[in-house]
Task: structure prediction
Amino acid sequence: MRDGKAGAGGSAGRLTRRGLLAGLAGVAASPVAGHALGSIVSGPSVISSPPRTWGAEETPVNLPDPDVLALDPSFGLVNYGNAPLRKLWQGAGWLEGPAWCTVGRFLLLSDTITGCQYRYDPEDGPQGHVSLYRRESFNANGNTFDAEGRLVTCEHGMRRVIRWEHDGSVTVLADRYRGRTLNSPNDVVAAPDGSIWFTDPAYGDGVVEGHADVDGPANPQRHLNPYLDAELTSQYGGLRRQEDHTFRVDAKTGKVEAVLGQKDVAGPNGLCFSPDGSRLYVASSGVGPGAQPPLPDHAIHVFDLKQGRPTNGRLFTDFTLAGRAMRPDGLRTDVEGNLWCGAWGPLGLCGVFIYNPHGQMIGRIRLPVGCSNLTFGGPKRNILYMCCGTALFSLITATQGAGHS
Result:
């Protein structure tokens, strides 16, 4: 999920094609230019050839889709060449946390800026339909459904992880560690053993996607007021930053355990398990407010799981493309063990990267903006849904998402 860079979610104005073309020289010089070009253009895209348009009036795309790129023959096993990329909806502040509800057959989405959560129904009309799911989610980010179909959500604003029970009540799974409140829980997944794992960087420790710290390294001059228009913050929400962690919540005891620290993965963001549950993948994204060394390395790390705990941490990929350092975000695995990763960076390179279990990039999806998070959904779990700033994209694939990711 997004690393909270200034301006990343706030690229509000639509850019003209002339403006984009004029800015391409700047793109080549800036490693974070993908954030600056976060708005999705209404005119022709400069990514594919021939240029394509996005939206309800888009021109039919020649197949296979020119923006779904095979880099290795093995990508043909998971790519369905007769399906085009589609932009399904646009209008959010910053979309995150896509989670497919198997029972309800809908996609749950979080808007970290407005605090709303949305329900996307793919069966309601040709483009599907988006409706309001939860008006106030306290700047919710990551979501997942556990094995019992209960929704688990990370809340930046309240700095906690909650679970919605079947009777409509709420259980707080985690809001502190060793007596200290959490930072801003970001992404969350259910492990094969029923435990809940989540990352806790400080990307939401600001006024846009949560609330500022009362003091300390994330608010060193004390200029930001955490109490403005936040009646519950002083009672429940954390007010001071701590070290970045990746946490595990035990399914039976509810114990909150830090399984990875900042020295293991700094700025932890997206996370997921391999299909057989033997591996854990964690993305190291951007620097959160008040971060202290060690700082994120913008790479993806992999760990072996022994007795349900991560060991033998190592670099899975440095996440570079065409000699450019990209930035990983949300992660998911498919049933073949391939890793699908949201990628931020220059226009033309950003989108989604697909790696095989050995760390080789076998394909990628070019998008007109970086991808903050993604998941597989649909009745067959073969539709890749991609949250991209203000918009939602989809692609039908020839594989299926791993059930617990």
Remarks:
- The radius of gyration is 20 Å.
- The chain is about 5% helix and 35% strand.
